[in-house]
Amino acid sequence: MKRKKWFALAVSVVLVAVTITACGTGKASETASTDPVTITNVSYDPTRELYEAYNAEFAKYWKEKTGQDVTVTQSHGGSGKQARSVVEGNEADVVTLALARDITAIENAGLINEGWIDEFELNSSPYTSTIVFLVRKDNPKNIKDWDDLVKEGVNVITPNPKTSGGACWNFLAAWGYADKKYNGDTAQIKDFMTKLYNNVSVLDSGARAATTTFVENGQGDVLIAWENEVYLSVKEYPDQFEIISPSLSILAQPSVAVVDAVAAERGTEEVSKAYLEYLYSDVGQRIAGDNYYRPSNLEILKEYKDVFDLNLKLINIDDFGGWDKAYTDYFQDGGIFDEIYNK
Fold it and tell me: 0.70 exceeded by the pTM?
């Protein structure tokens, strides 16, 4: 009889311990669950096609690895606007935005852990891009370089750097060219930039909206855009447009991060981290290349040497003191962009 009582007591203690352990975790481990899971990727405008292809491949990979079905919901818009939407309550498990400064804004709101930029390889930038021009077939305005964009009668389309990350890269690429041309003479650089933005007829809120204005609505002589955007436009309308690479552009590094506060609340930390890590896999890198983003894996990038101009001279954000300084100097209210854009 005593042996039976002792055994029953032992079983009770084990059951209580298991119950306490399960309750203490808050949510069951994802790897132990095969219940379907949904995560939200808040991204910027021109990544729609990239992530439509990538999400399908990641879902297959995750199912094979864990047995769990994953659905990825996409949200797209101007990068700056997207960052603000997350701060204001748009519940993203991950963000894949146009520039590090937009993710830092989410970090400053307490939603992303400090040090996010070191969580993944290459400053959490799994693919890169640059800024080039899209012109109409046969290039009727004979646009070859940034100098041609400040000429009288040239109608320029570019988005607004107040709301679009791509627009910030556009502005800095143009500034970098003028800086070299005028040997750092700030007055002459500002005059160049003022002339350029006086030629801008439409300042859309995001990069995809600017592409739509130029490509579908037929406005403008030249579109300043992400490299992937112009390639997609030429692919869709091969007889209507041409790509022009300027003599100097900028290495654009879109950034990615897990939104730690949201992922912890939803119990999606593991799948969210894996979603971003898989971007660095050979599969993820080739999906980026197939969608006209430059793979960060240099060996895979070489596979696309017939697609991209790999000899294009590129400055980078470090030439502007990093994103915090660049954003303060050029794009904050009262900064240089406000000074030169007087429309």
Answer: yes
| One-letter identity of residue 109 | A
Statement: residue 70 has pLDDT above 90: yes
CATH of 30-127+253-302, one of 3.40.190.10, 3.30.1360.120, 3.30.530.20, 3.40.50.2300: 3.40.190.10
Q: Do 227 and 169 touch, CB atoms closer than 8 A?
A: no
DSSP string, 65-113: HHS--EEEEEE-S-HHHHHHHHHTT---SEEEESSHHHHHHHHHTTSS-
Query: Which token pair is 42?
Result: 């808040």
Sign for the CA dihedral angle at 178, 230, 288, 203 comes to positive
Say if residue 26's pLDDT is above 90: no
Q: What is the pLDDT of residues 122-141, one digit of tens each?
A: 999 999 999 999 999 999 99
Tens-place pLDDT, residues 191-215: 999 999 999 999 999 999 999 999 9
Phi, psi of 61 (to 5 degrees): -60, -45
Closest CA to 295 of 287, 285, 304: 285
